[in-house]
Amino acid sequence: MDPRYHQLARVLTDYSTKLEPGERVLLDCFDIPDEMTVALIRAVRARGALPLVQLHHGRVSREMALAAEQAQYETIAEVEMLRMQKMNAYLGLRGSHNITELSDVPSDRMKLLMKLMRPVQDHRVKKTKWCVLRWPTPAMAQQAGLSTEQFEDFYFRVCTLNYSKMLPGMAALKERFAATDKVRITGPGTDLRFSIKGIGSVSCGGDRNIPDGEVFTCPVRDSVQGHITFNAPTIYLGTNFDGIRLEFTDGKITQATAAGGGTDKLNAVLDSDEGARYIGEFSLAFNPHVLSPMRDILFDEKIAGSFHFTPGQAYEEADNGNRSQVHWDMVCIQRPEWGGGEIYFDDELVRKDGRFVVPGLELLNPEHLV
Fold it and tell me: Given a cut of 90, is residue 295 above it in pLDDT?
């Protein structure tokens, strides 16, 4: 067995979820090697906790979703909720041999699944200790433009980073979020203004996602004004999107376009429910090893020098009251090679071209985190 499997399993059980003796842990494993599942079971047992395992396969999940019926998934959601309510912790390892496996599932079926399974996800997020991560595959290596071996080396380097180095800078950023009313973001195709006054924030330094490296808050729901252009490609429900541009009036997305004929599909997602056209998250990211997008949001939302702005559901810990079955992290990179950009808190420049420029926050620049 690759020794890096054991190293990663220890990060997840010892640092990310800090498992305690007797805690029940659901290991939710999607198309990952059996050896990694075994490493996780052993790491959970070493903490004195109790592992429960669920295995998933992409092609099987697609077949289930293709003709999903409400009565069928109401039963599945009920069973999954009963199991989740028994859990103290959750570790989700999500491999994918084909990231577009669900691209031909009818949109109404996907909306049905998202709606019915949302309470299970909400319980997991709110009531358990949890961490979710991808698993490296040749498909992911191809997305990243790397050989399989290069990507695996990158993956394990990022996922076993010493995340404790982020703690001082994240604490400083949380303090700045708490003291800030007005945020302004400028850059190519972007001039965005909103308030975060009275909204909480959450530090993510290896205890929610792997890879990690972000602090997120949420705009006051009706405060967002202006427009934004996202320069990172994205994928949502198995469909690729590029060049997304959103315009806002009083918090609502009033116009949305995407390059390459994606505008209709983009608006179909944003019309899923009322909350999908309002923003549920604003986050600044700073993982020093994640530099380029690869259409995998658990990596892309952590890109050094980026931020993401999220149509849809808000998290309870940083909540503006927006509710939606959609939660779509859209990423804009502001490092110079991506066009640069500025972020202001109450008219003070705090980050320029992807680098923090005020005392305390500079601890989140790459040289302090590697």
Answer: no
Domain end: 159, 175, 205, which one? Answer: 159
> In the 8-state DSSP scheme, what is residue 303?
B
- In angstroms, the CA 320 to CA 336 distance is 32
> From the CB of residue 362, how many other CB atoms can be counted at a distance below 10 Å?
15
- The residue count for the chain: 370
Residue 200's domain comprises 163-368
Whether residues 136 and 181 fall in one domain: no
Sign of CA dihedral 316, 211, 213, 343: negative
Nearest to 13 by CA among 152, 169, 133: 133
Per residue in 64-80, pLDDT tens?
999 999 999 999 999 99
The answer to whether 17 and 89 have CB atoms below 8 angstroms apart is: yes
- Tell me the pLDDT tens digit for each residue of 144-194: 889 999 999 999 999 999 999 999 999 999 999 999 999 999 999 999 999
In whole angstroms, give the CA distance from residue 153 to residue 325. 35
Q: First and final CA of the chain: distance in angstroms? A: 27
